[in-house]
Amino acid sequence: MSRNVNFDLSHPLMEAGLESPADEEGVHDSFQQLIAEHSDNGAASSALELQQLQSDLDEESRDNMPLSGPEHEHRRRQGASDLECDGGEREMDPIQGEGWSSDTLKILSSMPSRTIGRNRGAIISQYCNKTLKLRRRRQTRPSIRDFSPSSRPSIRSYGMEGDTTDAEVSKRERLVNNLQNLPVSDRVRMLRGMPLSVAEKKEIRNLVMQKEKRILSNKKLSCCSQLKYYIIIAARKSWYSWLSFLHSLQPWQTLLKRVSGRFGTGVLSYFLFLKTLVFFNVFLFLVTGAFLVLPQAVHPPYRDTTSFSGLELLTGAGSFSHTVMYYGYYANYTLPRRSRDEGGGQNASTLTSDSQQFSYNMPLAYFFTIGMAFFITCIILVYSMSKTFGRSFRINKSNSILTMKTFSCWDFKVIKKKSVQIMSENIGTQLKELLAELTQKHTKSTFCKRFCRLMVHGVAWTICIASTTGCMAGVYYFSEFIHKDLQQNHRNLDVNPLMKEAKLLSLPTVVSVINLLLPALFNLVGWMETYESPSVFAYVAIGRNLMLKMSMLGVLCFHWLGRVAPEYKSIGLTCWEDFVGQELYRFLLMDFIFTLLDTLFGELLWRLFSEKVLKRKRKPVFDIARNVLDLIYGQTLAWLGVLFSPVLPVVQILKLFLVFYIKMSSVMLNCQAPRKPYRASQMTTIFITLLCIPSLLGASVCVTYTMWSITPSTSCGPFRTLDTMFKAGKHWMEILEKDNPSLSVLSKAHTYFVENPFFLFVGAGIFLIVIYFHSQVVDGQRKIISLLQDQIQNEGEDKKFLINRLQSVHKQKQDAGKHLKSQDSTC
User: Fold this and answer.
1) Which of 39, 102, 183, 479 has its CA at a distance of 20 to 30 angstroms from the CA of residue 794?
2) What stretches pass through the bilayer (predicted)?
């Protein structure tokens, strides 16, 4: 039976670079070579010992009988022990309890997975040798043939139950010495890699630090060395403090951990998505603020001001119309020169005559700032989407994640009581989600049950589609009614201006009411369907709410760009872009107000009614689908309005901050965790995808159509003298070519690459291709990982099959031997 040799690590030559026996392949794989060398050199005692040991092994290898009895059990326990381990107590091999034959046990003991010692003494010895290897990496390791027989490792302790306590202490001391001589980075890496308990690692580290302190205290350092030492320590503490400060700057970390611990990853995904939207709007405001708002605020045009009435906070009109908040305030000339006349002809001549000395062309800046903001946002979204694809759709079976979460997810740097409690709740909730996924059973239903379920799903989707279509038709006709009412009010001069502005809130109110009530109908229909998986119910609700929100936005975009823009003079408007910007401001404001109402009546009052009236402890469950689609709806409004109101991202940022704290407080006080925990591993990816494909793509199409096809207002804005907003770039290229003919290449490039819509479709196609290929790569990786996992499982089955075959062959030989002996005895 193959065994590993136990080297005496106390020999001084082992510190010259010899590794453990596992690293001496091809040198100590046979006892015969050592026996011959000891015999030739006269080492009689060692040779006798080796001959006796080899004879024991040969005798055991010829033994074909099953191991039984206490004597055989003792010898089998000694043979199966891993004698590479230099300390610790040997444990009996668990596979020996199956009664395998000696031939099978010899094969099992030679397997790589069964020849690695895992007791504490072996671990310390192994890492002691590793530290020696790190210290003498450049030194060549001498062969064992180069040493005299007396200096070779002794195997006199072969077959002993374990090392003594003194040997283990000496090995620990040598390990401490070796670690003390290593650099700090190697020392930390070595300690982290040791498969010991945290207490033992901490003890070894303390011993190393104490020895270093003793060495430093015995040495008398010079003043320069002490100053250098203190400077290094101060710099390191300052760096760690700076890193901790940067980590503390990340907003809402503690709140997010608390939500994750109490409500799971589903509710956490909502708040993470809200945090992502805040960063997108901050980026959008930085771009528009730096290139549009700030230059125009420094050089304001002459405008008549109106008094502030307070109604502007609701309608966005009034005195707000004469600020940098809206499109009409921005000039159509070079900013350092002020225009004396706000008319179109004078401004056009100013734009042409000042072309040689311009410093900041506002029409060009407005066009390219909006275009580049959408382009960069699209790149960031595509990158985020591809990154989340690879992160969430990666193959991670629940049992493997459960093992990692159970044994290796605790952060031992967390020492505060509150942080420890939050982390323990977080880990507990994640374990519940993983266990729920593991215990989820997919029962096979009969044909009648499947048919009834399909019928229920069909009826539910019919109700949802019919209600969405009806609401969309209602909003369409109501918007038409509002447009006709504006035309009549323009003809009737007796209408109060404040009342006229107040009527503008009717359309946002109707749309917000629909967005509030119809998702409740979707939830009621979803409860009728009785989905077994909570994640499936959430995804279906997201699809239905998305259908509602996008249909509402489609009708509104048609109202603004199809009715208001072509006929803005018939309703008494001088700048239809300002009107559309005000409408989007009103929609954002009403969406925020109805979010507050939903939090108050849908969560707080329902909890009080359930506790006080119904006498039940049940609380409402946080509706992830509706709240996420509300965020996407509001962000789409912000992207649509950035062309008409460059300051609208600020309004969206304030709204998101307030929504975060309101929803966080409501979730903590009024909601409870789902009855069935589930792991929302792919929700973040779905949210980012919905934000990119329907939301940003739809807003980009509307903004592009506005710039390419719709004629701007003739009395306001930076494009007032142009047929379309897109002509600003072409007009600037013509001026450049006229002033400097050598720049005609830029004009041609603008004509072929910017004006030609083919390249816009090519760019969009490239983005879609990138997304498609990345999804295919991720899918291929998932399949490869799945195949590798199946291969590992099949290899384990192969090992079991080979072991069983060996056992059956041994039993056949044993039965044949017994049959021959019985025949001989009868003869």
Assistant:
1) 102
2) 267-294, 364-384, 454-478, 504-525, 546-565, 585-606, 627-647, 653-671, 683-708, 758-775
- Going by pLDDT thresholds of 50, 70 and 90, the confidence category of residue 138 is very low
pLDDT at 246: 78
Q: Mark out the alpha helices in 249-343 (DSSP H runs).
A: 253-263, 265-288, 294-298, 312-315
Range 252-270 average pLDDT: 86
Beta strands in 354-475 (DSSP E): none
Distance in angstroms (rounded) separating the CA atoms of residues 600 and 594: 10
Measured distance CA(323)–CA(336) in Å, rounded: 19
pLDDT tens string 72-108: 444 444 444 443 334 343 344 444 445 566 666 666 6
> Six-digit token pair at 77?
């326990």
Within 13 Å and on the Cβ side, how many CA atoms surround 221?
12
What value does the mean pLDDT of the chain take? 75
How many Å is the Cα radius of gyration of the chain?
Answer: 39
Contacts of 508 by beta carbon, 8 Å cutoff, 6+ apart: 583, 586, 587, 589, 590, 591
**Domain ranges, ordered by start, for the chain:** 268-302+312-335+359-441+448-723
Assigned token pair, 91: 């444990």
Residue showing tokens 């005496």 = 8
pTM of the model: 0.70
Residues 382, 657, 626, CA angle at the centre, nearest 5°? 65
Task: Map tokens 């509030």 to a residue.
Answer: 516
Q: Indicate the Cα dihedral angle 725, 727, 729, 734, nearest 10°.
A: -160
Condensed to tens digits (0 to 9), the pLDDT of residues 627-645 reads: 999 999 999 999 999 999 9
Which residues, at least 6 apart from 303, have a Cβ–Cβ distance to it below 8 Å?
Answer: 322, 329
Name all contacts of 379-385 with Cβ < 8 Å and 24+ positions apart.
380/280, 380/283, 381/688, 381/691, 381/692, 381/696, 382/692, 382/767, 382/770, 382/771, 384/276, 384/688, 385/685, 385/688, 385/689, 385/692, 385/771
Question: What backbone phi and psi angles, to 5 degrees, belong to 43?
Answer: -85, 80
Rounded to whole angstroms, how far apart are CA atoms 666 and 513? 21
Burial class of residue 606 in the structure, from the number of CB atoms within 10 Å of its CB (0-12 exposed, 13-18 middle, 19+ buried): middle
- For 334, residues 6+ apart whose C-beta sits below 8 A from its C-beta are 350, 351, 354, 355, 357, 358, 359, 360, 361, 362
The packing angle between helices 447-491 and 506-529, to 10°, is: 170
- 673 closest CA partner among 434, 433, 441: 433
pLDDT confidence tier of residue 343, bands split at 50, 70 and 90: very low
